[in-house]
Amino acid sequence: MTSSHTWKFFRAGGFDQVQIDNGEDLLALKELDQKLWVALSCPTRGIEFDTRTLDLIDYDNDAHVHANEVLAAIGWAGALLRNSDLLVQGSDSVALADIDDSSEEGQQVLVSAQYILKSLGKPDATQISLADMADIEKFVAGLEFNGDGVVPPDRIADEGVRATVEDIIKCRGSIADVGGKAGVNQEISDAFFGEVTAYSDWQAKGDGDADIQFLGEKTQAAADIFHAVKEKVSDYFTRCQMAAYDARAAVPLSRSTEDYQGIAAQTLSAQNTDIANFPLATVEADKPLPSISGINPAWQKQIEALRELAIVPLFGKKENLLASEWAALCAKFAAFEAWQATKPATSTEQLGIARLWEIFGGKHREAIDNLITQDKAVEAEVKAIRSVEKLLRYNRDLYNLVNNFVSFRSFYTGRDKAIFQLGTLYLDGRSCDLCVRVEDIGKHAEFANMSGLYLAYCDCVRNGGAEKMSIAAAFTAGDSDFLMIGRNGIFYDRKGQDWDATIVRILDHPISIRQAFWSPYKKLIRFINEQLQKLAASKAAAADEKLIKAAVSANMPVAAVTTSPPPKPPFDVGKFAGIFAAIGLALGAIGGILASLVSGILGLQFWQIPLAIIGLMLSISGPAMVVAWFKLKKRNLGPVLDANGWAINARARINISFGTSLTKLAHLPEGSHRSLADPFADKKPVWPFYALIAGVIIALIALWQMGFFGENQ
User: Please, what is the angle between helix 104-119 and helix 379-402, to 10°?
Assistant: First the structure.
């Protein structure tokens, strides 16, 4: 891809990285092929960067900052500043004179900045800083109208309108404004008044129809008691009709003597459910329903209420209700029931019809809509106030983000820690600077294993366990002899806070060439130690067994002691001949090899002996060192960050020399005085020195006998 801009690149981590030095470089990034970017995406959490700035850049709110979002942020900030080089300085303040007001948005930002300074009591200030925006949320929330389209009730001066808004919140819920106060927006208001209108229209239809409200204002109460007894009264008249159909049915339909005997032993009351299941009155052919006396006690109050609210107003003061009159009463309530079936489902009914009529008839809706409109009218001005904060944050943070996104300049130059470096882990006499935050250790380790880095996953806690997090620390120098699960260290985050760190998982990879050089000898020493320990353990076990047998024999009866043990089977020479032969051959071969090595070394010139020893050591350690060297060259930071949600676009190598800078070993300070006298050191025996002297003398004699010194004369 051709570009009108002249780019500079530096090589680090085994690949070319773009060098951003000035504002012109920043603005030209949109022309740089994104294949040359180190990263194309990074998470907005879990890194050492201002989360508020990342959230502003992340305009799609997906918790990741993408390359196009970085370019959009640079373009927006560059267009509002007269000098794009200001973005490189990383200052948290901007001079008002540096805001470019040639555009409409620039004018709004400048006016908003001046308004903020004036509100803070600094009308003559020539620059605005992030410190001035510390309480920007409170500042915006304190405005009479803040552009969010939400009207809290405490902002309304009119008591009637305020009461209506409170009723809206009660029925339809609320939404928080920028200051966190509960209020209503246009959507909630429209939904509420829509319900009020629907319910009021429905109520008006019932009130205007005489067939529906046939008992006036008492119709609803009469309908409620009618529905409460309707099924029971219909049951009674049906039983009487059955008795008219067959006189024999009257007695059993009135319940038998056995039914009464079944409840006779109970303590009876009008609330007894067994009594309520009996008919309303005794059943006879075509018998009217008594409304005063002769009623089932469990239904007495309901029938009396029905008589007072419906029977008397319609049929006069009657003591009995005929079946035909009951049918007429049912027909009378049919229109009311049909009207009730059309009742709209609404949350506003809880306010009562009187309050709803008051709201419906008033002009509260227009007043609330007007307040919401006024609030939305200043949206551009309030947005400009937020744009001032946005510009200040971009001015401070964009250059740092680019040097940790487009390139890893901060990481590879070492002039500052990268944003993914969480802090420093101190453990096993080392400090590890490459520590990243991890949310899921198992998931992270599965992918990060491809990095080739020796990673120690640690659980970190502080404040007695109140705060917890997990990290992955890369060990890139030293060895892994004493790195194991369960070891404890101290982790210092970028704020200087200390955390108790415990290793919980390890990804084992080569750490250094030095470790690879000594690894064969350490393995040999470890093997010899294990064999010696096994041998010592077996001898100790055998000795213990003999002591136990001796103690048991001493305490046994004489007869038991004199009893001779069973004879051992004779030694089968043929069976063990092959084993002895194999052991002899192995010992002979080993002895021959050692003799050949010693004789070969002693047969060399004097100056050739050290070279031979060095060559022998390299022949042993060389393969391990070569394998480690290839693996160390391929160490890659990418999988470690990819496992954390980054989109790494390059093979960010960590070679041997750079890796050494990421993990520092313990060294005494320069100019320190060191005493080698250790009062608690193990006492060293003298005989090894005599043995060494004797060995040197014997070696010299052997060399003289072999004519070594004669050849050099």
Answer: 100
408 near 396, Cβ under 8 Å? Answer: no
Extract the tokens encoding 710: 């004669």
pLDDT of residue 712: 45
DSSP annotation of 521 reads H
Among 708, 58, 92, 90, CA closest to 398 = 90
Q: In degrees to the nearest 10, what's the CA dihedral of 610, 612, 618, 621?
A: -90
d(CA 159, CA 171): 18
Q: Are 407 and 38 in contact (CB under 8 A)?
A: yes
Q: Report DSSP letters for 666-703, one per residue.
A: P-PPTT-------TTSPPPPSHHHHHHHHHHHHHHHHH
CB 332 within 8 A of CB 128: no
Q: What does the domain layout of the chain look like in residue ranges?
A: 9-143+380-412, 153-208+356-377, 216-346
> Residues 643, 43: contact at Cβ < 8 Å?
no
> pLDDT digit string (tens) for 265-288?
787 777 778 888 888 888 889 889
Q: For residue 85, what is the DSSP state?
A: T
Helix (H) or strand (E) holding 320: strand 320-321
Return all residues near 84 (Cβ < 8 A) that are at least 6 apart. Answer: 22, 23, 24, 26, 27, 78
Q: Residue 194 in contact with residue 172, Cβ under 8 Å?
A: no
Burial of 433 (0-12, 13-18, 19+ CB in 10 A): buried
Q: Quote the CA–CA distance of 649 and 688 in Å, as a whole number.
A: 61
Distance CA 377, CA 206 (A): 42
Q: 561-618: per-residue pLDDT in tens?
A: 445 555 555 545 454 445 544 444 444 454 455 555 555 655 555 556 566 666 655 6
Cα diameter, the chain: 155
Q: What is the C-alpha end-to-end distance of the chain, expressed in Å?
A: 75
Enumerate long-range contacts of 276-283, CB under 8 Å, 24 or more apart: 279/235, 279/236, 279/239, 279/253, 279/254, 279/255, 280/232, 280/233, 280/235, 280/236, 281/236, 282/254, 283/236, 283/239, 283/240, 283/242, 283/243, 283/249, 283/250, 283/253, 283/254
Q: What is the pLDDT of residues 140-149, one digit of tens each?
A: 767 777 778 8
CA proximity to 460, closest of 470, 450, 451, 452: 470
Helix (H, G, I), strand (E, B) or coil at 179: coil
- Check: CB of residue 260 under 8 Å from CB of residue 274: no
Write phi, then psi, for 694 (nearest 5 degrees).
Answer: -65, -40
Considering the entire predicted model, what is its pTM? 0.65
CA angle, residues 374, 380, 386, in degrees to nearest 5: 120
Q: What are phi and psi of 684, to 5 degrees?
A: -90, 130
pLDDT less than 70: residues of the chain: 1-3, 137, 141, 516, 518-519, 521-524, 526, 555-621, 624, 684-690, 692, 696, 699-700, 702-713
Q: Which helix (H) or strand (E) holds 290?
A: strand 289-290
Nearest to 219 by CA among 206, 232, 230: 206
In angstroms, the CA 489 to CA 325 distance is 93
What does 86-114 look like in DSSP terms, one character per residue?
HHHHT-SEEEGGGB--SSHHHHHHHHHHH
Cα Rg, the chain, nearest whole Å: 48
* DSSP secondary structure, 563-594, as one string: SPPPPPPPP-HHHHHHHHHHHHHHHHHHHHHH
d(CA 4, CA 2): 7
